[in-house]
Write a structure and sequence with these properties.
By secondary structure, the chain is of the alpha/beta class. It is built from 19 helices and 13 strands. It has one domain: TIM Barrel, CATH 3.20.20. Strands 1-2-3-4-5-7-10-11 form an 8-stranded parallel β-barrel, surrounded by 4 helices. A 3-stranded mixed β-sheet has the order 6-8-9. Strands 12-13 form a two-stranded antiparallel ribbon. The two termini are 37 Å apart. Bound molecules: beta-D-glucopyranose.
């Protein structure tokens, strides 16, 4: 009877009913949040003693890559506008804010011999402002912006980068571990390494695919594990925080059911999911056997004496195994994978994987070339992770959609609702997803795409000196979902006014 009443109440209020007629809701302890990263929002690129990062250098040197010419020098000027940022989080009524710390803002030369007090002060003020309103800080230690001084020494291709990262993390933990419940060591090793060291269009733009990217992957993964162990040894007992890593986990299905395409999709997932998941979450640790064997065999055939993928030794495997309290899932889209016999002139990761990616024509396009709407992907990803990695504890640390500059962002609303519907099914089928973090709280500098692709729940007027922020329809819809804990397919806000809901976000203040 009680169930029926609840069902009726929910139905009346317009909750989305699935084909089985049932309604799914988020539990009361499910965390909702929003995310940004330092380079993308802070600005103040050389203020108050901050050092140069690889993204500062890269976009200063390659302005022509940026379609609208806007780099991160000023961005949303969150360095000065952080109180407004927290106000927006209060308007949304979120539980947590995921932001990153800029390594060169804290250690301008990369090492801990010189600590920039002003940099620490900025993050201290931001954290206190969040805590004042009962919003939990979720800090990413590294979101793509390496100090340029360390890049000059080889960056993530240098095995010493593991030690450099640990040194930096210790400075941050010493300052903030007592105030911060959630830590993410590294955001997306795949982007850092495959795009930055393999490719040329993202910092540092090394262009060493099939070699530099693999060297980077090994070091970034070890750097993560070292910092996880550092927290575990020195801070965990006292402060009880959780430490995870955020991986780019898009879904991939075979283009057709042909054996070649099914195998191509399996291999593609081993390269894009397994390479990063296996060392931490699989029973035997290490990189996937398929990937190791394939690269070794090809390397030998190409005349190399060793595999282009560096080996993890037994101590490194032990260090990595189990080195996460949660898996941060950054999920945006789904690809269809086709086998291909395209021949590449030189060894490269694309050549190693040997597939072609495509989409279903009916998947709606966003403002970003790579991003199409296929929300069922999160459901399949959940099932895959449960099966292969034995039900890992997860937090969605990024999910979002890009548009042009516009306030009525119906395509983002649709993508978000459909994603939540699929996610709720994944949770019902056993996925241990503890929270969701929208990318992004506001429009920001989308790396080399500048501000031509807008991911914000809030629109930012980059022309204005104040970098004025205004809520989009999606901000109001997200707020409503957080309040109701279920998805309503037809709900529309009366206006674009958004107000702080006192009872929740302000609970400590009252
Ligand atoms: C990155 C963000 C980026 C977003 C949209 C994620 O992979 O972590 O920094 O803005 O994708 O492209």
């Amino acid at each position: 009877m009680e169930v029926l009443v609840i069902c009726l109440l929910l139905c009346v209020s317009g909750a989305y009913a699935y084909t089985d007629g049932r309604i799914r809701v988020f539990s009361d302890d499910f965390l909702f949040g929003a995310a940004t990263s330092a380079y993308q929002v802070e600005g103040a690129w050389d203020s108050d003693g901050k050092g140069e990062s690889i993204w500062d250098r890269f976009l200063h040197e390659h302005p022509k890559l940026i379609p609208d010419g806007r780099n991160g020098d000023v961005a949303c000027d969150s360095y000065h506008n952080y109180e407004r940022d927290v106000e927006m989080l209060r308007e949304l009524g979120v539980d947590h804010y995921r932001f990153s710390i800029s390594w060169p803002r804290i250690l301008p030369g990369g090492f801990s011999n010189k600590i920039n007090k002003k940099g620490l002060e900025y993050y201290d003020k931001l954290i206190d402002e969040l805590l004042k309103y009962n919003i939990k800080p979720m800090i990413t230690l590294y979101h793509f912006d390496l100090p340029q001084t360390l890049q000059d020494l080889g960056g993530w291709a240098n095995p010493l980068s593991v030690q450099w990262f640990e040194e930096y993390a210790k400075v941050v933990f010493e300052q903030f571990a007592h105030k911060v419940p959630y830590w993410i060591t590294i955001n997306q090793p795949s982007f850092i390494c495959v795009e930055g060291y393999g490719g040329k269009e993202n910092a540092p733009g090394i262009g060493s695919s099939g070699i530099g990217d693999y060297m980077c992957i090994k070091n970034v993964m070890l750097a993560h594990a070292k910092v996880y162990r550092l927290y575990e040894m020195e801070y965990k007992e006292k402060f009880k925080g959780s430490v995870g890593i955020s991986l780019s986990l898009n879904w991939a299905d075979p283009f057709t059911n042909s054996t070649e395409n099914v195998q191509a999709a399996d291999l593609y997932r081993d390269f894009t999911i397994g390479l990063y998941m296996n060392p931490i979450w699989s029973k035997d640790g290490d990189f996937p056997r398929t990937v190791k064997d394939l690269i070794l065999e090809r390397s030998k055939a190409q005349g190399y004496r060793h595999s282009r993928l560096p080996v993890l030794n037994p101590d490194e495997i032990t260090l990595l195994k189990g080195s996460a309290d949660f898996l941060g899932v950054n999920h945006y889209t789904t690809f269809l994978v086709k086998a291909t016999d395209q021949v590449y002139p030189n060894p490269s990761m694309d050549d190693d994987i040997g597939v072609e990616l495509t989409y279903r024509p009916e998947w709606k396009t966003s403002q970003s070339k790579w991003l199409r709407s296929a929300p069922y992907g999160i459901y399949k990803l959940c099932l895959h992770l449960n099966k292969v990695y034995d039900y890992p504890t997860m937090i969605i640390t990024e999910h979002g959609w890009s548009t042009k500059k516009l306030l009525k962002d119906n395509s983002r609303v649709k993508n978000m609702r459909e994603f939540f519907k699929a996610l709720l099914l994944g949770i019902e089928d056993g996925a241990r997803v503890k929270g969701y973090t929208a990318w992004s709280l506001m429009d920001n500098v989308e790396w080399a795409a500048g501000t031509s692709e807008r991911f914000g729940l809030y629109e930012v007027d980059f022309e204005s000196t104040e970098k004025t922020r205004a809520p989009r329809v999606s901000a109001l819809v997200y707020k409503r979902i957080i309040e109701k804990r279920f998805v309503e397919p037809d709900w529309k806000p009366d206006s674009l006014n958004i107000a702080i809901t006192k009872s929740k976000a302000n609970s400590k203040e009252l």
